[in-house]
């Protein structure tokens, strides 16, 4: 519920704070006193756009803050959690509008977007203003009304799960069918590429190894000459390195006892001599293996030619990349072989889920059909009570294909004058008619779902007397279980208030400003009497006002 509304520097409001009760809050005041300005300010924290024209003083910002009790509003808490916003039992929504027109929004002191504000507002407040036809004429709202009265929520939850799974499975089936179609177009090409690679029969890193071998074979004579010279220098020259090192070791060993470091040097030279001797043997063996082989070179060149052609065709640079492409082609060819089986299995799943969703949709439709007539009868009776004796509502339900909320297209039709020409609400109902019709419908729906704070701006347009009294009764009943805020000019409605606010203008300095205050019991009697008979109420009007409040 809306506990408090604080407004500063908005239109002709300097600064006011309004503390609302949790039941029926009535706002009255003379025409032009600023009642609708309050609703304009409230709409800003509900996500409406604003400009600098709303500033009372251009040298300071406009500031509007709403305090809401959300202790029992799980949907609101879920929204806050989903948007990573802090939440407790109290929620504070704030809107700042600077003199340059820049606007900022905050939810519990955390910056928020206007879209977040609008989504949150729908969970906190239901603001119905005169000529506001969007919600009542919306097919989604009309469906929700029927579902609320039909007790369809559990069925809808079950249906939505099955519908979502059916929809996803159907999309997966369509993807498989498209994949098969694309495969069929490219199957021959895939097969050709795969056969070509399979015939080449490359092994991991083969082409890189062949390239290295070709380099060796192409330079075999130079390599062999170099290796032969290395062996000669190490073992066979007039002063072979291995023999020279050996003699050094022998000479140094004679003096090992005469100097403390000679023995270590001799050991190191001996290790070097042994290592170089091993190297000489390895070079000798390597030299035996190196030889020019023209046939091998020709074979390698042919193999590399095939490989480089594959590199260019597939846009790769290594043997392993070619093998990866070959494996991928094999998977695609295998997929073609198995895709028909997958399609058959998926078709069976789609058929089964569609049948299950259809059965649930039938149950939902039956509940809606069963509730349509009682809804029409109750609304039409209420319309007579609120001063619309010739108005009639009609609910049209047409069967459609499966949709996210069942298989019904629901339309509320309206005839204001017993003409038997029913038209969609959004086309024919006037602002005043819509306001009262909305009140009638919401008074019925409120028994079935947890509506947010209900705000009605001048719902009494075009009514008086008994009709206005009946509107007051309905509002009072609504307020027994939820917060209702209503701006009215009718004394019959004002008399039902739990808390009565009076909006008035006052002159401060050289400026006219709007203010608001809660009326005491005696002030209420006087205000309602003035609504009945004028600025100076008669004794009869005062007595009548007292009776309205007491009853």
From TrEMBL:
<dbReference type="InterPro" id="IPR003395">
    <property type="entry name" value="RecF/RecN/SMC_N"/>
</dbReference>
<dbReference type="GO" id="GO:0043590">
    <property type="term" value="C:bacterial nucleoid"/>
</dbReference>
<feature type="domain" description="RecF/RecN/SMC N-terminal">
    <location>
        <begin position="1"/>
        <end position="506"/>
    </location>
</feature>
<dbReference type="InterPro" id="IPR004604">
    <property type="entry name" value="DNA_recomb/repair_RecN"/>
</dbReference>
<keyword id="KW-0234">DNA repair</keyword>
<dbReference type="GO" id="GO:0009432">
    <property type="term" value="P:SOS response"/>
</dbReference>
<dbReference type="GO" id="GO:0006281">
    <property type="term" value="P:DNA repair"/>
</dbReference>
<dbReference type="GO" id="GO:0005524">
    <property type="term" value="F:ATP binding"/>
</dbReference>
<comment type="function">
    <text>May be involved in recombinational repair of damaged DNA.</text>
</comment>
<keyword id="KW-0067">ATP-binding</keyword>
<dbReference type="Pfam" id="PF02463">
    <property type="entry name" value="SMC_N"/>
</dbReference>
<dbReference type="InterPro" id="IPR027417">
    <property type="entry name" value="P-loop_NTPase"/>
</dbReference>
<comment type="similarity">
    <text>Belongs to the RecN family.</text>
</comment>
<protein>
    <recommendedName>
        <fullName>DNA repair protein RecN</fullName>
    </recommendedName>
</protein>
<keyword id="KW-0547">Nucleotide-binding</keyword>
<keyword id="KW-0227">DNA damage</keyword>
<dbReference type="GO" id="GO:0006310">
    <property type="term" value="P:DNA recombination"/>
</dbReference>
